[in-house]
Every structure is written in structure tokens, then in C-alpha cells.
Known about the structure:
Rhopdopsin 7-helix transmembrane proteins
Amino acid sequence: MSKYVNYFLLSAIIACMPLVSYAGSNLAPDDAVGISFWIISVAMVAATAFFFLESLRVTGKFRTSLVVGGLICLVAGVHYFYMREVWASTGTSPTVFRYVDWIVTVPLQMVEFYLILAAVTAVSMGVFWRLLIGTVVMVVAGYMGEAGFINTTIGFVVGMAGWAYILYEIFSGEASKSAANAKPSVQSAFNTMKWIVTIGWAIYPLGYFLGYLAGGTDEATLNIVYNVADFINKIGFCLAIWAAATTEVDA
């Protein structure tokens, strides 16, 4: 019991540090964007504690997957506190903080494909590196385009190429073939994760296109869409891994 308590206290203290630091932020009752930032940041903290605690009752390599899932939500939660503060203080999009979050959490999500497969079947390190490289290309190109370091169209095209490379790997590449040989619970998790990467992630290039290539859209709408997408694409993604891990434990 003591290790559960210690683990929970550690994760709670780390995850709640930004909440303490920025407790004085103003949040207007009609600020839908600010409220969405607050909801997502607290949800990420809750998800962090949940995945860390659940990692204690699974065994083997699935434990690593759940710990990484907790780290994904922890990093996102910390950045959402800062993003909320930027929005509340300036009313502008926290582009830099959002991409700092993505450059850490999105590659970790891709690593999860490798981890859940490695937990139950043989899979080469090539899967790990291809997914990681494709993700970094996608996120870095998107940031450089949004921040104005390169032409926005070039950033969009290169980012889409990185995303297409990821989709090929998880639908038709070695990762997909390895998943076909995995246990049913892992196959189910893999399929849920790949459809989140396909449908859920489509919100991000759509927002980029509308915001920078199609005449622009208001920042409030764009941030709400991004926030809801992060909630689904991070917490939902990790819940699919949790479902596979706990199925193996409870079987």
C-alpha cells in the first residue's frame, strides 16, 4: 500500500506544481477558450495520476507503456497550465508552448506503438525509428510554418508528408504486419490508436490550413478545436493502451 501512496503523492506533486504557481490567473466566466484550457489541464493531471497508479498493477513491458502514457499526460498538463496563462494574459494563441508540448508528447505517442508491440511479439527497432523520425518531421515542419521561419505552404506540405509516412507505417508497413501477429487485446489497442492518429490528428492540419492557408480563422475557435483534439488524442490514445495492458493482467 505504501508504494501506491508514495507513487500517487509524487505524481500529484509534480503535476500540480504549475497549478500552484499560476493559481492567481484570472478566468472570466464567459471565456470559453480559457475554460477549455483549464478543463484540459486538470484532466491531464488526473490522467497522469491514473496511468501512473495503474502501471503498478500490470507486469512486464506493459508497465513501461503505461508509465510513458502517464508522462505524455504529465508533459501535456504542464504545458496546458502555461498555455492557459498566455491566453488569459494576452488573448493570443500560445503557439510556442503548444509546439513545445507536441515536440515531446507526439513522438512519445509514436513510441507507444513500438512498446505495445514489443510487449507481446517480436518487432524490429526500425519501427521505433521510422515512427519517431516521421513524427519529428511533421511537428517541426508545422512549427516552422506557423512561426514564420519558412513559407507556410512548405511547412504544411512537409508536415503532411511526415504524417503520411506515419500512416503508411501503421496501416501497411512493418508495424502493421507485427500487429497482425499480436494478441487480440494488443490488436484492438493498435487499431484504436491508429484510427486516433488518422481521424483525431486530422484536426491539426485542418486547423493549420484554415488558419494560415485559407484566409484565416479566429484564434478562439482554433484554440478550442486544438484543445478538444488534444484531450481526445492524448488521453483517449493512452486509454487504449491501458485497456490492452489491464486485459492481459485480468485474463
